[in-house]
Amino acid sequence: METLWILGVLLSICSLSFSQECNQQLLENVDFPGTDIKFVFSPDANHCQQLCTQHPSCLYFTFIRADWTKDNGHFDCYFKKSSSGQPNVRTPLQGVTSGFSLKPCSSEPQPCLPQLYHNVDFFGADYQTLFTADYDECQRACTRDPACQFFTFINGVFTPERIRYKCHLKFSWSAPITSIVERKTDVVSGFSHNTEITQEVKPACEGKLFPSTDIPGNDVVVLPAASPEHCQTLCSVHPVCTFFSFVSNKFECYLKNNKNELVPKSKEGVTSGLPARFCQLDNSWVKATYEGVDFGGNDIRYELMDDADTCQRTCSDEPTCQFYTYVNTNFFNSDYRRRCYLKRSITMPAPPKVTKLANVVSGFQLRNCVNSAPHTDVLT
């Protein structure tokens, strides 16, 4: 009886995935109202569709275009889902574009984003500024800097004059980030063995760690992390991180910035360290399994399996899976036992905010494009 029940569950999962057909169509001035699960900022419907594709549970979306007139909700990208995989309602609405996730299609994990957006600001996430002659040179600077994911260029007629020709290089995570890391009895978590943090082949090195040591203050961002080595890798790929501290009982990774001094302080339960940007860190944390640790959220789906090793192999074999959590047979709630949760996060360039701003040009790095394909202008 148990075998038949498990088979039924697996067949229902498969039938749901097979029922989703590849649909690349964008529907202008059509709204998919309701069923929202999240909203993010995006410069156009194509980018919104790619974000929906990478989100673990988004099945379709509605994007608020720049010509929307009812309020200031321009550039909002609403992720949506339903049990059927289809919108419950479709209504005409001027100024929006709707469409579907490309998960059933053979989409690129890191898509090429050649568009340029005139009079659109990718607000925030700056880590470096420089002056360039035009937006093409700004985009080239972004493309050549491994940390840069997108940019905004201030053109020659912007007011005030003192910031004309300024090129703002901006950062977003290209590494998978877990939403929650917490202790939980009788679960096992880990990463896909195909996880790649750095894009370039570099010589291996050992990072410098300081056990039982805190470096107080100068925090840039706090992220969940599974181990000090994982935290060190996140610091190494962040362009302004000069050192870090990892709090083991909370799984908190504090990325810090101070170019002038480093003042360590003895503290149990905290490991601090330095980044290693000019070599490939030992990614043993990717191969490790974390007993009694739950990576909460980010679920693509779950499948029933006999052990954590099978769960890890399943995640590594599936291109969309970045990390996983397995619930073993001793878990207190029998309804969740033997579940392998496959998980992922968005790793494509994604500005934290998109706004209208006259006399600026924004765009993305072209490292994901073949031969740095020429840009496409989008007049907004």
User: How large a portion of the residues is in β-strands, by DSSP E?
Assistant: 35-45%
Which strand order does the major sheet show?
7-9-8-24-6-25
Number of strands: 25
Distance between the termini: 60 Å
Q: Could you tell me the radius of gyration in angstroms?
A: 22 Å
Low-confidence regions: 1-19
Biggest sheet details: 6 strands, mixed
Secondary-structure-derived class: alpha+beta
H/I helix tally: 6
User: Mean of the pLDDT scores?
Assistant: 91
Helix content: 10-25%
Give the CA-based shape: globular
List the helices and strands and how they pair.
Blueprint: H1 2-19, E1 27-31, E2 36-41, H2 45-54, E3 60-64, E4 76-80, E5 91-100, E6 115-123, E7 126-131, H3 135-144, E8 150-154, E9 166-170, E10 180-191, E11 204-205, E12 209-210, E13 213-214, E14 219-224, H4 228-237, E15 243-247, E16 252-256, E17 265-266, E18 270-273, E19 280-281, H5 284-287, E20 289-296, E21 299-304, H6 308-317, E22 323-327, E23 339-343, E24 353-364, E25 376-379
Parallel strand pairs: 6-25, 11-19
Antiparallel strand pairs: 1-5, 2-4, 3-4, 3-5, 6-24, 7-9, 8-9, 8-24, 10-20, 10-22, 12-18, 13-17, 14-16, 15-16, 15-18, 21-23, 22-23
